[in-house]
Write a structure and sequence with these properties.
The protein has 402 residues and is α+β, with helices and mostly antiparallel strands. It is built from 8 helices and 17 strands.
């Protein structure tokens, strides 16, 4: 009986060793086959489509168009000129590709159709922006893209290099029984042109002089002789890269498309903006309460041709909105509300400042309601063949000596 159990035990052990040996051998063989065929589960064959999304109406490239393979997370977007490159796994070639962008009709294609073409050109038809159902988040991304493109294109579209402006200046100040009018002509000299500079360097790159000044009042105190020209020129946001016109500040603003219309062979975008948390850095106003406005941008050219800035601040120094003051001794006013309209003009294929109109209402230190209207008109500019010396600013506009 014992010998029978020993025999069965020996058979079981022998069978177990055989099974283990067989499994090891098969595993080794499989590993060798895998190694020789270089099979790798992590590698997937990819294909690539390159091309351009263009406006069907004028052939211009469409920036920031969305390109997505449906029912997947695979996609891309066009660059500033409408070009794109899309890589995707080969097993998706039977899927549809969907192209969309705000302001244009969408299109859908089979990937397998597009991959046969070396350089794909896809035309989208412009449509009216007056759409009730619109993806707000997608629209916002597109609008930020247009503003960033406009900031990026300053060096290409605006004057770069030394130049001079001729200007006409007029300020009307009304408060209580006061009705003061100052008119003047002058020259603004810029030794660098529309390039991005730090605020101190920008200040040193520009100066101005007044001439032919007339007033309906006599200037006695030093304060009343000031023109606040430096503050006025800060509204030239393209030159100063301040406010919304700065990559560093842009995402502090909420953007909304108000309108779109054909304009001189391009499309004029009317974009409203609002500063979500206004402060000195993003608005150049030390006592800001709210700050919003409107941009008018040529979409294809990427040029700002008009800007409207609306703001309110608790008080203001006589030196300008960007200065802090202690006490009430150096206040221009309190409860200030202002609207600035800035225009840009194309002259000789380059843009430059055309005009600034600043309207302010306020309460004076004597608790009188006041109003100030300042107009700066720039009819033309002259390029300089050398870098001018920048002198001291004519802050006080008091050439007559009184």
């Amino acid at each position: 009986m014992k010998s029978r159990f020993r025999r069965a035990d020996l058979i079981l052990k022998t069978l177990t060793i055989f099974i283990i040996t067989t499994l090891f051998t098969n595993s080794l063989t499989l590993a060798q086959e895998t190694e020789t065929t270089d099979f790798n589960f992590e590698k997937t064959e990819e294909k690539e489509i390159k091309g351009k999304i263009v406006n069907e109406y004028n052939g211009e490239g469409i920036p920031f168009a969305n390109i997505v393979i449906e029912n997947t997370l695979t996609g891309t977007s066009t660059d500033d000129d409408g070009n794109f490159s899309l890589k995707y796994p080969v097993d998706l070639e039977n899927n549809n590709i969907f192209i969309s962008v705000i302001g244009f009709s969408s299109k859908r294609f089979k990937l397998s159709e597009l991959e046969k073409v070396e350089n794909v050109i896809i035309q989208l038809k412009p449509i009216n922006y007056e759409i009730i159902s619109i993806n707000i988040e997608a629209e916002s991304k597109v609008l930020y893209g247009y503003v960033r493109k406009t900031i990026k294109n300053v060096g290409e579209n605006f004057i770069t290099g030394p130049f001079e402006y001729n200007f006409n200046y007029k300020n009307t100040y009304i408060a209580g029984n006061l009705n003061r009018v100052t008119e003047s002509q002058g020259i603004i000299t810029d030794d660098s042109g529309y390039i991005q500079q730090t605020p101190p360097k920008l200040f040193k790159s520009r100066t101005y002089t007044f001439s032919n000044t007339t007033r309906n009042y006599r200037v006695k105190p030093y304060k009343t002789g000031m023109t606040n020209m430096d503050e006025l020129l800060k509204y030239d946001i393209v030159r100063s890269h301040t406010s919304i016109f700065s990559d560093a500040n842009l995402y502090q603003y909420r953007l909304e498309l108000m309108d779109s219309e054909p304009y001189d062979g391009d499309t004029l975008l009317h974009i409203a903006f609002k500063n979500l948390e206004p402060d000195l850095i993003t608005t150049q106003d030390a006592y800001i309460k709210y700050y919003e406005g409107e941009l008018y941008i040529l979409k294809n050219a990427g040029v700002l041709i008009k800007c409207v800035i609306k703001g309110s601040s608790t008080k203001k120094s006589v030196l300008g909105k960007s200065y802090y003051v202690k006490g009430n001794n150096d206040l221009f006013g309190e409860d200030i509300r202002y609207v600035a309209t800035i225009m840009y003009h194309n002259q000789g294929d380059k843009y430059h400042l055309s005009s600034i109109n600043l309207n302010e209402t306020f309460v004076t230190e004597n608790k009188l309601k006041g109003k100030s209207v300042t107009q700066l008109i720039i009819p033309d500019h002259k390029m300089l063949d050398h870098k001018p010396s920048i002198g001291i600013r004519d802050f006080y506009n008091n050439p007559d000596g009184y």
